[in-house]
Amino acid sequence: MRLKSHQQLKRLALAGSFWLLAGGVQSVLADTIQPPITGTPTGGTTQPPITGTPTGDTTQPPITGTPTGGATQPPITGTPTGDTTQPPTTGTPTGGTTQPPTTGTPTGGTTQPPTTGTPTGGTTQPPTTGTPTGGTTQPPTTGTPTGGTTPISTVSGCRENPLDGVFCKEGKQICIPAAAMNQPAKCTSIPGICIENPELNLFCDDFGGQICFPDAARGIVCGSCKEDPTRGLFCSLKGKPLCEERPNEGIFCNSIPPSCIHNPVSGLLCNAQHQQEYAVTCVPDPTKNMSCNADGQLCITTVAGRQICQNDFTMDNFDVSNYRPEQLALIDSEDEMGRLPKEFFAQMQPEAFQEFRDDAYGHMNSTQVEQLPPEVFGQMNGEEFFHFAPEVFQSFKPAQVQQMPRQAFAGLTAFQFNQLKPDALQAMNRNQVRNLPDDVWGSVDAEVFFNLPANALEGLDEEDCEQLPPSIFAKMGSNFMSKLGENCLEGMEEEDFALLPGEALGGLNADNLAGLPPRVVHDMTPDKFKKLQPQALRELRDKHPRDMLDMLGNMLTLKNDGISADEIAMVKDLLPTGIKMDPTTGEFSFADDFASDGTLPFPTLKVNPEDLFGDLSGRIKYAAPFDMNQGFGLGGAGRSGIDLLDEALRIAFPGFKFRQDKEGFIELIGEGEYAGAAFDLVVLNVKKAPKGTPPGVTTVPITGAYLVTTSNGMELELSFGAPNLSCLAKGLPNHEVEYTSENVMIFNPIATTNAATGRREDNGSTPIPGVSGGRGKGRRATQTPGLTTHPATQPGERPYGELVYASDIGIEDCAGFVQKIYPTLPNVNSFINLLVSSGFSKEDLFRHVNGGVRVRYDVDGNGQKELYEVVPDFPTEAPAITRGKVEQERLAKDANGKFVLDTLGRFIYKYPYNGKLLTIPLALVPVTE
What is the SS3 assignment for 667? Predict the structure, then answer.
């Protein structure tokens, strides 16, 4: 059936018929494709954005305010309680030997006086420590320390002592450990800033931030991670939880803390012993002599014609010299596997090896694995490989590793990977490394990492490098550094960059320099910049001009210290073609032909989630936004973005002004007669304004965005945001809140424990993508606090959710109010790419500021494209993905290639996220412009 007009399309919508998004590379809408449309929005008008400040009773409640826990963390001192408190810098560590204090009496019995002195004003500072070991009080040291060789100076009341690594920055003491330069650490304790104690694995980064390397043997725990080896829970070197999956012991990692997962919908069951079981359906296969008995058990016909079922199988009725390969599917215990001689495995054929059940591989021992011919691994997948016991990985040979397809490595854990011997590691290639799960790298041993062939490291991506321990970067040489790709370095953290030796900086090339994230470039000092290879910087300028500009703009250390003539001279020859720099201020200006697509880099906000969100930081994932308090110049020099926004706004909306809060949201504040009016916005893009565009504010109806054109020719795309992440996290105590760079919130429920059974239950733990509205005073809550979702029940209905804040939430702007949220796509860019790969033109796809997608399509092939909105509902299910199994993002189709529709005529979108496979219904709604 072909539609002849837009009116026919609307009539079909109201009649309950639906039109699908076109599928396949050709994107041909033929009679084989079912036509759904979920209807015209109420009133036939364009759907409003799902954020903003509604009117009347539906006005969104404020979600701004001071986040609880945002104060500065106290120094790490005192006596730890259990395994939750940070270790003291002094005291008796595990093992019974007394560690020396970081100040006081050093080894050798001589008393080291604390570094104090006479600050400005002539009064004597008290010592930084009290009574050292031995019980005698040390006198304060004034003037020149013993020996008279240590240069000490005072800067704004801050005492510098370079030989002890103590410096002053903006009037505050910071600790710069010599360990960053591959020399012995010499930093003293700086209370309230950073504590350096190598014996307790405590170090300071270049800006006085604390770095902690956990050590379970000594009871050193970092951050909020608590190790519990009996439950398979360990801590990475960055203090993040890691889970060792041990299927044969009932430990699975789909939820943290790990334990048995009870989710019958996904086939996951817990038995009376709290062990993991699967609900498995027997599938007969006459071609393999496999059948099912009345009890649903798998049965195999032997060579002699005898039928043996699962419960009847023993090694006594298995003939190792004369058997059918499918009989191996009956072996399911360590005892049965252990009775197979090593010679049996030495003669194993690939076809027979594939007949073992996945969990049977976990019962193989090292001798058996060592005997396997390399070719048996050629068809192995991640689900199978991950079942091998960690200790057998010590027996893998290079020839066996070489034969493995890359998908096999998708199932490995760090505990398995760390068992591989150097010769086996050397056999790995970049594609195999690319398929290793992200969490493998969080606990990778340095010896293992540096035994990989350098070329194999090209397979590391952003998520992999984000997990790498800082100790790996501290040992990085130029050869390995040069092989870390651009995508990998995008995951580098500030503490990683602080520990890089000078040799590693010299190993960076133009391609991976382009991947340095803004949070790292923020800490790029002139000294570090000069360690980069000049040729690499020139190639970066020529090959990746915007990345070069991004680096120069984000070197905030320059602006913090005051940009000097020397620093301007340092970069003037590295400016891309089309960019000019003010020789006095360092501000950039750009030619009309710079950046073909118009996008420009801009400094991003420097965010420390722990400082910003306090005890909530572990539940808030945060993509740092643009820093509008910076300018478009070297190190953020020049007029700030806020000044430019205010200037443009005065033309269009007198009585309002902008400011950026500490979370990065742009607040539009009313003054005078508009006092009390406030909106929260985010900057989505910074672009070059079309030539001749006057300063001011315009809107884009098709995307819902606001465009602010500044007086210096920049165009800022603004959208309504979801402010105060602390409110959202407080309102959803059993969820993790992820705020993405796409202006999308994802509420990811944390698995809970059933009080009656003690089981970790995954039921209902479906991640919910959604965005919150702006902050006007919302209606008071009368219902129970928490999140309630209201999925669509009929075609054309708009799904929504209500987040009810408790009256004692602790944040005044949110207490007792109701916040509406609306479901969105978890990853808009990914979905757009999926449609492009299915044949849609990218020019016909639009990212709406409400977190959705709009698409233009020629319905009847007459050259007239109509506009539709893709309206997602809340995910209907989210089964756990087995470790090692690869799930692809897709639009579900049946065996005939037709799209699968739900009962409301919506097509089904499958999206893997956070170990789940989300099933999201998508409706296609015509938009009236």
Answer: strand
**Neighbouring-strand partners of residue 369:** none
Contact 715, 699 (CB under 8 A): no
Query: How many other C-beta atoms lie within 10 A of the C-beta of residue 927?
Result: 19
Q: How far apart are CA 71 and CA 69, in angstroms?
A: 6
- Six-digit token string for 83: 């395994």
Instruction: Please spell the DSSP secondary structure of 535-585, one letter per residue.
Output: HHHHHHHHH-HHHHHHHHHH-HHHHHH---HHHHHHHGGGPPTTEEE-TTT
- On whether the CB atoms of residues 605 and 612 are closer than 8 A, the answer is no
> What is the strand order of the sheet 752-753 is part of?
261-262, 760-761, 752-753
Bridging pattern class, strands 620-622 and 735-739: parallel
Q: What share of the chain is helix, strand, coil (3-state, %, to 5)?
A: 30, 20, 50
By the 8 A CB rule, do 65 and 812 touch? yes
Residues 6+ apart with CB under 8 A from 619: 729, 735, 736, 737, 750
Alpha-carbon distance 99 to 92, whole Å? 6
pLDDT tens digits for range 30-68: 222 233 333 333 333 333 333 333 333 333 333 333 333
Which residues of the chain register pLDDT less than 50? 1-156, 179-185, 189-192, 255-259, 273-274, 757-760, 763-764, 776-777
Can you give the pLDDT at residue 402? 95
Residue 39 falls in which region: left (phi positive, over 0), alpha (psi -120 to 50) or beta: left
Instruction: Walk across the sheet containing 853-858 and list its strands.
Output: 845-847, 853-858, 865-872, 916-926, 907-913, 890-891
Place of tokens 């002539």: 122
C-alpha 17, offset from chain centre: 40
DSSP letter assigned to residue 279: -
| Distance (Å, whole) CA 717 – CA 711 | 15
Q: What is the pLDDT of residues 442-459, one digit of tens each?
A: 889 999 999 999 999 999
Looking up tokens 């209902």 gives 764
Q: What is the Cα Rg of the chain in Å?
A: 31
First to last CA, the chain: 26
